[in-house]
Amino acid sequence: MKKRLLSLALVTLLLIGAAGCRTAGKTQESAAPVSNSPQDIAPPPVDAGVEETTALAAYTRVADKLTISGEAGEDVQFDMDMIMKINIESDGESESLEVNGNIKVKIDGEETHSSIVMDMGVMGRMEMYSDGERVYCSMNGQEMEIETGNVMEQIQGSLNLPQFEEDAIKSCEITEDGENTKMLIVIDGETLTSFVAESMSAMLGEVADSQGMEIYDIEITLVTTKDEIPLSMEMKMEMDMTVMENTMKMVTEITYIFNKVGSGVEVDLSKL
């Protein structure tokens, strides 16, 4: 049961990440977009009463520091730890699963280095390293090395923090948290439910027609320095899903700890 449910849970979480990428793209095309450019938006005051659009703009600026666009000459560096806890109830059984990982990215115009190491419980251990030209991958003792092509770009793209258009945001506020700044964003569950159900239908065909799915509002808490350097982020999501008459309730909590952002990141590529 564990492997089957964890696989489904990870696929669903990836689709939710894709929902963020898609709605972010809509934002850039909309008539009144929330600008992603620091030059276009003055830094917001740290005030509990700040307007939601300003808080969303601040969140977007922070997310941009961790966004890999694939454009020539970009400079993106970060080293972060990730802890994902999943609790699943299905057919009267309950399972608690935990995924721990570390992700390093160093793109500075000259180098495109990255590493992803994940301990995925019953799914085993996954390691991936890239120097921009080759990718080394190891999964439970099975090793392979491939030419990068666009594979690593797709993987790196899935690591970006989710960014959503204003229509998907239920609330967004910014407050002081000691010497730091805290942003609380609530994402509308109905918007995500529609996208994920549509994507799973495209992936699974007729199997997906029998699915009932509901994703509840997602809460994202992002803590940064006063200079908008990310320190940590927590995301909590709850969803119900029915697949071929089997009901699954999944509660997921993801914590990101940002060790370094912007500079000083070194990626060990000794396995390449």
Write the layout of secondary structure elements.
Layout lengths: L1 H28 L22 H13 L10 E16 L2 E16 L3 E8 L5 E6 L3 E6 L2 E6 L3 H7 L11 E9 L2 E8 L1 H16 L7 E4 L2 E7 L5 E14 L2 E16 L11
Antiparallel strand pairs: 1-2, 1-12, 2-3, 3-4, 4-5, 5-6, 7-8, 8-10, 9-11, 10-11, 11-12
Describe this structure in words.
By secondary structure, the chain is α+β, with helices and mostly antiparallel strands. It has one domain (2-261). It has helices at 2-29, 52-64, 151-157, 189-204, and strands at residues 75-90, 93-108, 112-119, 125-130, 134-139, 142-147, 169-177, 180-187, 212-215, 218-224, 230-243, 246-261. Strands 1, 2, 3, 4, 5, 6, 7, 8, 9, 10, 11 and 12 form a 12-stranded antiparallel β-sheet that branches. Strand 11 (230-243) and strand 12 form a beta hairpin. It starts with a helix and ends in an 11-residue tail after the last strand.
